[in-house]
Amino acid sequence: MKFRKSTLALALGCVFISGLASAGAKPDQVDRLGKDLTPVGAERAGTADGLVPEWTGGITKPPAGFKKGDHHPDPYAGEKPTLVITAKNYKQHQDKLSPGQIAMFEKYPDTFVMNVYPSHRSASFPQRTYEMTAKNGATGKLVANGEGVADVAEGFPFPFPEDPKELMWNHKMKYKGIGGVRYNNQAAPTASGAYTMVKLREELLGKYYWPGMKLEDLNNILLYFYQEVEAPARLAGSVLLVHETLNQLEQPRQAWVYNPGQRRVRRAPNVAYDNPGTASDGLRTSDMYDMFNGAMDRFDWKIVGKKVMYVPYNAYKLHAADIDFDDLIQPGHMNPKYVRYEPHRVWIVEATLKPGKRHINKRRTFYLDEDSYQILMTDHYDKRDQLWRYSEGHPINYYDVPTLWTTVEAHHDLQNGRYLLMGLDNHDPVNVFDQKLNEADFTPQALRKRGRR
To answer: For residue 446, how far is the Cα from the chain centroid?
Structure first.
């Protein structure tokens, strides 16, 4: 089967962006936030056809009966799909589909289905995030050729994005709580559907979000990341520690690994760019974690436009505590009955590999939610410029925070028929976003002690 090389369909309905040279602080636009724009810079109004509604604040409080520590119940559990897209009718809707979605219909014509539900703009963030985002709008700017930011604190750095790297920084610096602990379990089914669950416990300490924190006090560290493999036995005890830097040209990401067999900590400079992710069977690269992370310097970036598309959203079914993994995980893709799509406006950003730079992807197209800047989908192209992989980030509003973030990521290899699922926390404690974590636990010295416990 030949996958579509052209991205012509993306241009249909796009609002093309001009004037990128004027990107940066916009003090004259700050008063638009909370008026015609949402507090993070999205269009408040819905679409003229009613497909996308007006943003009215998102989910501002948990449903009745919810307790901290519960898996988040689905606020829209009673809804039915308004549209079911299959291999038989997808061409009627391809103006709202990505090349990756189209390729899924062509690869799995008998089993891949998209259930499209009513759109709910559920994204919301703490009031302080909104306040700090407004301040950033008046002062924030890119530095170091877009590999760093300046004059921002706590909130989204660029609520009036006109440069593609501003959009990507909004994704990377989205509020994720002051300290988080989660299970990010993953499965990499074979083409027949067989899989082994890899249990990953992760800790995330983001000092950028601490009230009163300034960039100059961060020592160029955006966040600290700790990941330990708990199962299966052959991988258990392996630990990864990352110090994610803000300006990666000034100081690249620092990473270390602990090997339980050798009982030693060593530097891991290759935990970046296109090196394989932890226990991923080669189905994702390091910079595909959270849909994209890390330095942007190997690619040329551009904003393609903004349009309404059918994207993963409000994925509470995938987050449910009673899910049966054998029912969810099927050959080729997840069971469609658990997967929800909605029409939303998204930013479309394209990254093309620079001449002389190395990466397994020649080109990638990212689709960012306008209400949260979360990347919801990515199309990945190989060195022949043929569509190779398709990724989906399935978000929910963690309304006890609140923040909108993925609960499951799915990374599909369209050529070999395999895929990787990440974030399967259904049978484990849910994300904790206000955990009191100590910087001292995120040092190479502490890594050796923690790995031996």
So the answer is: 29
Running DSSP on this structure, what letter comes out for residue 198? B
CB 437 within 8 A of CB 205: yes
In the chain, what are the domains? 8-55+79-305+327-451 (2.50.20.10)
Say if residues 334 and 303 touch (Cβ distance below 8 Å). no
Nearest Cα to Cα of residue 379 among 356, 407, 351: 351
Q: Over the range 60-80, which residues count as b (16 or more CB within 10 Å of their CB) and which as e?
A: eebeeeeeeeebbbbbeeeee
Number of neighbours of residue 108 by Cβ within 10 angstroms: 19
What stretch of H or E contains 389? strand 387-398
Exposure class string for 279-313: b at 16+ Cβ within 10 A, else e: bbbebbbbbbbbbbbbbbebbebebbbbbbbbbbb
Cα–Cα dist 379/376, whole Å: 11
Cβ atoms of 362 and 395 within 8 Å: the answer is no
The two tokens of residue 220 are: 């160029």
Instruction: Show the tokens assigned to 448.
Output: 């050796």
**Starting at the edge strand that comes first in sequence, how are the strands of the sheet with 264-267 ordered?**
179-183, 199-205, 221-231, 239-245, 254-259, 264-267
Q: Rounded to 5 degrees, what angle do the CA atoms 101, 188, 312 make?
A: 35
This model's pTM is above 0.85: yes
Is the four-CA dihedral 41, 47, 51, 53 of positive or negative sign? positive
Q: Tens of pLDDT along the chain (453 residues)?
A: 444 444 334 433 443 333 333 468 999 999 999 999 999 999 999 999 999 999 999 999 999 999 988 999 999 999 999 999 999 999 999 999 999 999 999 999 999 999 999 999 999 999 999 999 999 999 999 999 999 999 999 999 999 999 999 999 999 999 999 899 999 999 999 999 999 999 999 999 998 999 999 898 999 999 999 999 999 999 999 999 999 999 888 899 999 999 888 888 999 988 999 999 999 999 999 999 999 999 999 999 999 999 999 999 999 999 999 999 999 999 999 999 999 999 999 999 999 999 999 999 999 999 999 999 999 999 999 999 999 999 999 999 999 999 999 999 999 999 999 999 999 999 999 989 988 899 999 999 998 777 654
**Best CA proximity match to 426, nearest among 225, 197, 237:** 197
